[in-house]
Specification:
The structure holds two protein chains of two kinds. By secondary structure, chain A is an alpha/beta fold. Chain A has helices at 43-55, 74-83, 99-108, 120-127, 132-145, 164-174, 189-193, 201-217, 231-236, 291-301, 303-317, 330-338; strands at residues 13-16, 60-63, 87-92, 111-115, 150-156, 178-183, 223-226, 229-230, 262-264, 269-272, 284-285, 327-328. In chain A, strands 7-6-5-4-3-2-1-9-10-11 form a ten-stranded mixed β-sheet. Chain A has a two-stranded antiparallel sheet with strand order 8-12. Chain B has a domain at 41-101. Chain B has helices at residues 6-9, 14-27, 53-65; strands spanning 45-50, 72-78, 87-93. The chains are: A alpha/beta, B alpha+beta. The interface between A and B is large, with 85 and 53 residues.
């Protein structure tokens, strides 16, 4: 049995966080990255991990951070991922892009995602930098000229849905092919700086309506993706949220068919689904020489525990007594349950 | 960070939401949901749903118009039993992700 998970069965994503070094200290940063943070993984560890994960069926390498453009061996890692036949995406704040970097990205990345948090003043406030928008916007013109497919990722809070129309218009004017709307995660620095600012399920429902309106408006020009789980689709197929019994003989199956997406954090920890998920659910440590063996062991030891976690999340979030609206942030719910924090109840 | 809800600044209310949601769900579906910081690779290498066959030609023309700027590959096939009136348009920009359904 091949469980499709939230990304569907075609896309088996490994998200890499090679460094927590960043030129910014964004208020909403879930990895608490900053200019002072020098944590990073060696390219040797990353490429070894990618080799194993490619053999385990992962076919999309998504590079995030920190700011990945500050990771010196970036292109060595991207070229290696490409050599494995992986689709490569890179998420950046866009401020450090230049023609030399873009020429290398044009050869190594299939898709570039640039963070955009609203109108210029909101973007600069969230980025804690007075020129964050101006510098990013100037560089996006070079991305377009380099003919790299690109999109914008918008962090939705409880307070900024009214800026989404402006963002969609800006994205279209810049020649982006994608606008992705992702609910703020109260993790990392956002836990202190933006407590209570994550959109609740009522705001997610309003966002769905606004996304549908904007998608109709920009049909054929801009794909707008809303990253919320739809309860209707989970009723039809609970395995989309890994709410299921363990498959028979998991040790004989590739890791990608048991759990995806996965995250490789800056210290080598390979964790399921979401940055910051409790290390109680860690799959393996890529910095250790027996990484491959740890992955194999997890299929029998850790996999049933992960499904148990997901089933608890599903039981809670799909209980009609606990919700009023069709959408919720599945990743956030898994993260909270993994840390045994109370799941937010709406009704 | 505080203040009015973004939806309130748009003039939306909880009361109007139920009706708006029903209408929106006809035209927009969430087929996948991606994690924070993970761009939706399927939306540039993915599927566009067209629920009205009469609109499919128009959408295809728009996609074909992109080909001057991007390497766009298109496949069109019917939904099948679930929605015999609709079509899926597969859009592949550059190299598609390998394997799988």
């Amino acid at each position: 049995m091949d469980c499709s998970g939230p990304n569907g069965s075609k896309y088996r994503v490994i998200q890499l966080h090679p460094t927590r070094r960043c030129n910014l200290s964004c208020l909403h940063c879930y990895s608490s990255s900053s200019p002072q943070n020098g944590d990073s993984l060696s390219p040797h560890v990353l490429t070894q991990a990618l080799q194993v994960l490619s053999e385990e069926g992962f076919n999309v390498a998504s590079i995030s951070g920190g700011e990945p453009l500050l990771y010196k061996p970036l292109f060595e890692v991207l070229r290696f991922a490409r050599s494995l036949g992986m689709t490569v995406t890179l998420t950046t704040n866009g401020m450090l892009l230049n023609e030399a970097l873009l020429s290398q990205l044009a050869e190594t990345a299939h898709l570039l995602a640039v963070s955009l948090d609203g109108v210029p003043a909101s973007h600069n406030r969230m980025r804690a930098h007075p020129q964050a928008f101006e510098k990013m916007a100037r560089n996006v013109k070079m991305v377009r000229d380099a003919k790299i497919p690109f999109g914008f990722i918008f962090a939705l809070t409880l307070y900024n849905l009214d800026e989404l129309a402006w963002v969609a218009n800006f994205a279209t004017e810049q020649g982006a092919t994608l606008l992705q709307v992702h609910p703020l995660e109260e993790e990392g620095r956002a836990r202190q700086e933006l407590q209570g600012a994550a959109p609740d399920e009522e705001e997610l429902a309003h966002t769905f309506v606004e996304v549908a309106r904007l998608q109709a408006l920009y049909s054929g020009k801009l794909a707008i993706q809303f990253d919320a789980a739809d309860r209707q689709s989970l009723v039809a197929d609970p395995s989309r949220a890994f709410a299921m019994s363990p498959v028979a003989e998991p040790a004989s199956l590739p890791l990608s068919s048991l759990a995806a997406p996965l995250v490789l954090e800056h210290d080598g920890a390979l964790t399921p689904f979401q940055y910051g998920v409790s290390r109680d659910y860690r799959i393996a440590d890529a910095s250790q020489p027996d990484f491959r063996d740890q992955v194999a062991s997890w299929k029998t030891d850790g996999y049933p525990r992960l499904l148990d976690l997901c089933s608890r999340v599903y039981a809670h979030k799909m209980d009609p007594r606990h919700y009023r609206y069709p959408f919720f942030n599945w990743y956030s719910a898994v993260l909270r349950e993994s840390k045994q924090e109370q799941l937010v109840q709406i009704a | 960070m505080s203040g009015d809800r973004g939806s309130a600044k748009l003039g939306a209310t909880a009361e109007s939401l139920e009706k708006s949601l029903a209408a929106a769900q006809v035209s927009y579906k969430i087929e996948r949901w991606w994690k924070y910081g993970q761009p939706a690779v399927d939306r540039v290498t993915g599927v566009i749903n067209v629920t009205n066959v009469a609109d499919a030609g128009k959408v295809l023309q728009q996609l074909i118009g992109l080909q001057g700027k991007l390497q766009v590959g298109l496949e069109v096939f019917p939904y099948g039993i679930v929605n015999p009136d609709g079509v899926h348009i597969n859009v592949n920009i550059n190299e598609p992700a390998g394997g799988g359904v």
